[in-house]
Amino acid sequence: MAKGKMIYTFEEGDGKNKMLLGGKGANLCEMTQIGLNVPPGFVITTEACLAFLENNRLPDGVWEDVKKQMAALEKKTGKGFGSADNPLLVSVRSGSAMSMPGMMDTILNLGLNETSLQGLIKQTGNERFAWDAYRRFIQLFAKIALNIPDEPFDEKMKEVKTAYHARQDVDLKADQLKELAEAFLAIVHRHSGKPFPQDPFEQLDIAIKAVFRSWNGKRAVDYRKQFKITPDQASGTAVNIVTMVFGNMGNDSGTGVGFTRNPGTGENLIYGEYLVNAQGEDVVAGIRTPKPIAEMAQEMPEIYDQLIQLHNRLESHYKEVQDFEFTIEKGILYCLQTRNGKMNARGMVRSSVEMCNEGFITKEQALLRIHPSILEQLLVPQLAPNFKGNSLAQGLPASPGAASGHIVFDADTAEARGRSGEKIILVREETKPEDIHGFFHARGILTSRGGKTSHAAVVARGMGKACVSGCEAIHIDDFARKATIGDMTLHEGDVITIDGGTGHVYAGEVPTVEPEVSEELTTLLTWADQAARLEVRANADTPGDAVKARAFGAKGIGLCRTERMFNSTDRLPIVQEMILAETLEERQAALDRLLPIQRNDFKGIFKAMKGLPVTVRLLDPPMHEFLPTAAQLEMEITHLRHLRDTIKGIEELPETLKLLNPGLYQKYADGLGRLNDAMTTFKESHLEEDVIVKKEKTLRKVRSLAEVNPMLGHRGVRLGITFPEIYSMQIQAVLEAAALCAKEGIEVYPEIMVPQVATVEELMRIHSYVKRIHKIVVLTHGIDVQYKFGSMLEVVRACMRAGRMAEDAEFFSFGTNDLTQATFSFSREDAENKFLPAYNETGILQDNPFEVLDIKGVGEVMKIAVERGRATRPDLKIGICGEHGGHPESIAFCHEIGLNYVSCSGPRVPIARLAAAQAQLKGVTAKGANA
Amino acid sequence: MAKGKMIYTFEEGDGKNKMLLGGKGANLCEMTQIGLNVPPGFVITTEACLAFLENNRLPDGVWEDVKKQMAALEKKTGKGFGSADNPLLVSVRSGSAMSMPGMMDTILNLGLNETSLQGLIKQTGNERFAWDAYRRFIQLFAKIALNIPDEPFDEKMKEVKTAYHARQDVDLKADQLKELAEAFLAIVHRHSGKPFPQDPFEQLDIAIKAVFRSWNGKRAVDYRKQFKITPDQASGTAVNIVTMVFGNMGNDSGTGVGFTRNPGTGENLIYGEYLVNAQGEDVVAGIRTPKPIAEMAQEMPEIYDQLIQLHNRLESHYKEVQDFEFTIEKGILYCLQTRNGKMNARGMVRSSVEMCNEGFITKEQALLRIHPSILEQLLVPQLAPNFKGNSLAQGLPASPGAASGHIVFDADTAEARGRSGEKIILVREETKPEDIHGFFHARGILTSRGGKTSHAAVVARGMGKACVSGCEAIHIDDFARKATIGDMTLHEGDVITIDGGTGHVYAGEVPTVEPEVSEELTTLLTWADQAARLEVRANADTPGDAVKARAFGAKGIGLCRTERMFNSTDRLPIVQEMILAETLEERQAALDRLLPIQRNDFKGIFKAMKGLPVTVRLLDPPMHEFLPTAAQLEMEITHLRHLRDTIKGIEELPETLKLLNPGLYQKYADGLGRLNDAMTTFKESHLEEDVIVKKEKTLRKVRSLAEVNPMLGHRGVRLGITFPEIYSMQIQAVLEAAALCAKEGIEVYPEIMVPQVATVEELMRIHSYVKRIHKIVVLTHGIDVQYKFGSMLEVVRACMRAGRMAEDAEFFSFGTNDLTQATFSFSREDAENKFLPAYNETGILQDNPFEVLDIKGVGEVMKIAVERGRATRPDLKIGICGEHGGHPESIAFCHEIGLNYVSCSGPRVPIARLAAAQAQLKGVTAKGANA
């Protein structure tokens, strides 16, 4: 076996050589060598381990070296191994190149025996602590090194506690612990057939060999098998022998933990807690309350100075905020451990920017150390961090953010009450496009059905509103205007709070904290924009959304869904009139009323986005989405008919009564007359015959529009071809709005985009509408509006034909929601309700492809389209406006295949900006389609 | 301008030089030069035309040449131009390189004047004919050469007819026509200010120039513009001057038309009609009935000999059956025109095979001259050719063939009455998979809704049964068991006849002729198989279908849809039990009962196909297709509840009556008791409480299975993954059936195919089932069954991942129906009902992509899959089993991209075999994906 050096002091070992020294050993060496005051010690190498396992004895000379190193430790510390005065105690720790929970971990206080125990008492002045340490050491050593199970020790402990009426371990006094330790020694003797080894070197010899053997123990072997750890990743374990230091040696001693910066705020101040004259166990046991480190400056100024030095050394070396543990023994600060600190988003952002400004890291490093997704925390309201209530139910975390408000069960009420300034949570079984006006006026949406890509979830994310979807524990009774969760009933108007980041639903109003875009975040994202090649745009459908998107740093609108404008209450009736029209004239009349409304919408959006491009998608959803469902209409018609018959009965009552019983009639004639008058008034205002007729007409239309597979039906450009007047109105509204803005001196860059295109001919047909209308607008308004014309790529065929499409289109935008459906032949709703959960559970699919872009399949189709499109038109602008446009991994792929921009919902814009920068910095460059 | 020779006699002109001589002129030259007796004449070239148009005068020397050629014609014919004895008359015809209806066509009998008219009377002995010819010539010449409109001539004609009480032109006598001709001459004089030109050369000069000028006439120019005829396709028109010949010069004269072979049967016998002593006009006027050419052998044996010579010359030169016109003038047969004869399928097949055997053409030519689609006529029953009745209504020609039978309105009745031997036509609004047992027992299917790719259409084509779909004129009342067409009512049991080739529906039984696979067709298809590279398989779901497919020459089963086996009445209840199962055990119990049934099906198919491969597709459709619809169940439950309540009322009646009126009760007690007993019996046998409970349970299941987009829902391999026990049963049935057959010494080649695969993991999962079950079957049956495992490619993602798929799959089969839906994002049913008609009308799409494979889009996806699959596994077998597999153009594409086989419905197998041969012969070879 290896003939090399098998023992390294922490001053000697190569901090990078984890294979030889193990992860822990290498770390201890590194810390020591960068000048941190680490308790002295040494490492026995993994090679020694392998040699031991081969020959079942320590390699020649190793034991002698160990003894030499122990002597060196005694010299360094001025302590004696087994000394009755000032004993040297050590910890023995295993540590391989990979962290492996299956192996023996740590024996503390090795070197304790009857003699050194007295030394420990003398040094700490704490008899109870010493006996407690001793009895712990005996049990741990027995278990790990001598294979004696825990049970006899635990039984004894119980026995002793019962005898002294101690509820907890900490209630036991020193002499009681002494009694326990002695009993433990007897257990060891009984089980091993030998007395507990009192010679510290015998203890050390046994411990080292036990650690080595644990490498081939069943748990470690199983662990390596399960996690597929191969010999070239880790082979053998090292043994780390570290001097024990004690924080309970008086008022110049102590212990604590700290972050080099505040992990919650990022502030550059050591953050943590410490206890004077205490060991780590005291913190864990909760007997004493630790103090914030800030107080140390007063209480222990010299130690605090050492802590400041430690902080500086740590950060200048690791270039990351560190989470470290320390112990102070008699005025000397020891660093026991350090690792990169886990921080929340605010902390990450501020510390990254400041560490860059302080010269520790570069801008690139600052950008790369933050996972884009965690920025979400900064962009939506959160539950107050100290809130600890229980939730009523948990659904899916469908759109992040916390929101409180009064429950309402339909969109109209949400709008009415929302307009009056009330905070509203819209609660429905599931939502439909016709509910969208309710979304505008709600602070959050809660549904009992539907997945993370249900209508409610997608729309809420788009608007940056909190949403919990698929909360199946809630049973909603629309009609009774109440909902039940288990035994609890919630009535309309009751207040609840939802947390769209976790899916929890709470009763009442839970305090929330509002998001703030900090100065540091602004700085970071500016750096991101400088680093990124991909532009980030936002999906926004209203002027208000556009303003928000711009505030989030969007470089344009990548998707403006014109149909969203159709759904507000003042427009929907006109849209329905347009759909129900039986002649072209009727339809045109409705469109003529919609034109100024849409034009105004576009003006607002263009103004909000002045100087930046705005991509307007022409009408996409099938017409039936703007109408009530057949079931709804059938119910309404039945009720209305019933009501009409009832009223007719009441109207005829006087005549009937007169005929049957004139006396009775005389008596009640007056009252009946009044009832009748009231009925007539009611009828006239609410129940003209044509209400039913209209609803029946609508029902016929709804039935005629019904489709077997609406996802693949009469929608998008197919509507544009079959009803040219609808698209023409929209195109006119866009171009006229642009002309009017341009006249006011506002820079406008409208881009007209056609959805659901499958054939080149469809695109050319719509392009011909645009060209014709453009000419008219130029003549009418006397100003030449510039615009771009392009196509969504969301149909597979369009991607295959991208080369020819690019002759007509100046830009492409991938609609990856629909493209994913078409590429998988998965209907999103059906897949998520029926088989996708099983697919994820059984490992057929790793992710939900509607959340994480499927690079192997959908990505291939995209690559082919990009390649063919650019072959025709090398400067073709290509973007993505599906939900994946806000997902960091998907953004990396978009960067890789050479897209020009991603477009996502407003609140995800900062996330996308950071992800775009990282994609560039990670050196991913555009590759060919067959890469 | 051109200085070349500008006039060619028919003996001189180059028959291939259509640019110079025009199409007609070149043809006349060709006919003359191959030795046919064409009336002599000459051509003035298109170059002369262009020169004339440039300078507005005939090029130097042309008129002199015309006069020389006329002199030559006089010499050749022994007639004189303008002669009073034996006048030479000519026709003047235009003719450019492309046929152009916009140009002046033909002036007949030029050279007629007061003098030559007498000569014509002398020669024909028919004064009426001569005057009629004269008045026609005057009007035509006036119109074409002198620009005098038809109106004054037509008015005069009307006037004369009225005067002589003539109903038709033919009723006018010689002197009346003479009067008309003289009036016509006066009209010409009045309109042109000059007398009608009596000098034949003046007539000729004017006519030639008029023909030349017509090249730049408005109609001709418009025509060239509309059909995008460019100068390199046709430039200028030639003028053909042809001697008139007359078939009415006595009993040694005549006229006729003929085919060189019988166009209906292909028999090698001249087929046609002739009239002795008559001109072509006589045939048109219908005054005399022509005789079959066969009679000529007796009546005019010498002429008949000339006809035989003509036949031989035509076929040996043109190598196609010719359709020719002839005139006999005084014992000499002239051929006026010949072209390739239009023949029906039988004629084409027989003549092709015989012409090949006779050495006229090669096998390749024989194969190439028949359009594969026309073979359809030979493979299904046809209406008797002499039937001339009126149809009741017309729907879409959804599946060819004619069928008569008794109307039934549901599948169960169709099965019941069909089993008893009745001929049945299944008539429904539309069909569903649960109707399939009715298809088996019906001779034809008629639906009032649905397109050519509706369920009814697709299934009927698959089975080779006649189908008319979408016949909207028929209103079906299932409940009343009747249908109405306008005022007519058809009751269940009434006989109708449908013609799936035309879409017509007839009352009563129309005689039909059964198909027969002739010896010639068998020969032709054997040649086709030798020539083709693509193999042709059939789609077949039952042993019966398999037998038929084999008879049609299928080289295997390319698609056996196992779910079709689930739909027959003895199986559906078990399948429904399986679907309604609430536990795995219940489901397994149902599957255990299905196993032997499926195994038996497969045994039957394997036996029928012994020695050939059989591709079995595992369950594809979503489960809800095997259950009734929610609406159906709701109606049934309502009715059943009502019935139950009614019965309950009757049961309680005695008690009620006893209480209210004991006297009455006494009187009716007996009757009530009997009624009650009858009720109880009825209830016990038909209305146990659990009938309703069961239906309610089914309804709940139907609702839970409902999908938004079933096409993209829980089906195919997704079912196989979520309910492994279903696929396992099917796999076991296939492999056990193969084992049992193998034991009986039958060669079996089972191929197991997985539908709707989108990911490699799905395929691997099912493959693991197959391998496991295969091991068990081998152990159980003691015989090692060989099988192949493969994947449908009908999901776009699978095509993109074909490289990786091919590691697991030994074969691919494109399912182009679903692949087309996914590539276009078109739902077939919705597209055909909603927007596809408009797309076809407005030219967005040329074809219905569900009928004609979309090569540019779907074809691209296929090419990518083929390329990637073969890169992994060069010997990968790839086929197609969508409906396109039977469509000739689509087959050519499949050949081009290198597929190994196409699979289509049985009756289309011969068509596909011929198309496969043509694809190879047309020299289309496999190309790369980017070709």
UniProtKB/TrEMBL annotation, chains A, B:
It is an enzyme of class 2 (transferase). GO terms for molecular function: ATP binding; kinase activity; metal ion binding; pyruvate, phosphate dikinase activity. Mg(2+) binds at E794, D818. Residues 423-503 form the PEP-utilising enzyme mobile domain. SUPFAM superfamilies: Glutathione synthetase ATP-binding domain-like, Phosphoenolpyruvate/pyruvate domain, Phosphohistidine domain. Residues 518-920 form the PEP-utilising enzyme C-terminal domain. Gene3D superfamilies: 1.20.80.30, ATP-grasp fold, A domain (3.30.1490.20), ATP-grasp fold, B domain (3.30.470.20), Phosphoenolpyruvate-binding domains (3.20.20.60), Phosphohistidine domain (3.50.30.10), Pyruvate Phosphate Dikinase, domain 2 (1.10.189.10). Keywords: ATP-binding, Kinase, Magnesium, Metal-binding, Nucleotide-binding, Pyruvate, Transferase. Its EC number is 2.7.9.1. Residues 20-62, 64-293 form the Pyruvate phosphate dikinase AMP/ATP-binding domain. PROSITE patterns: PEP_ENZYMES_PHOS_SITE. This is Pyruvate, phosphate dikinase. It comes from Sulfurisoma sediminicola. Catalyzes the reversible phosphorylation of pyruvate and phosphate. Pfam families: PEP-utilizers, PEP-utilizers_C, PPDK_N. Substrate binds at R561, R617, E794, G815, T816, N817, D818. The active site is at H455 (tele-phosphohistidine intermediate), C881 (proton donor). It catalyses: pyruvate + phosphate + ATP = phosphoenolpyruvate + AMP + diphosphate + H(+). Belongs to the PEP-utilizing enzyme family. InterPro entries: ATP_grasp_subdomain_1, PEP-util_enz_mobile_dom, PEP_util_AS, PEP_util_C, Phosphohistidine_dom_sf, PPDK_AMP/ATP-bd, Pyruvate_phosphate_dikinase, Pyrv/PenolPyrv_kinase-like_dom.
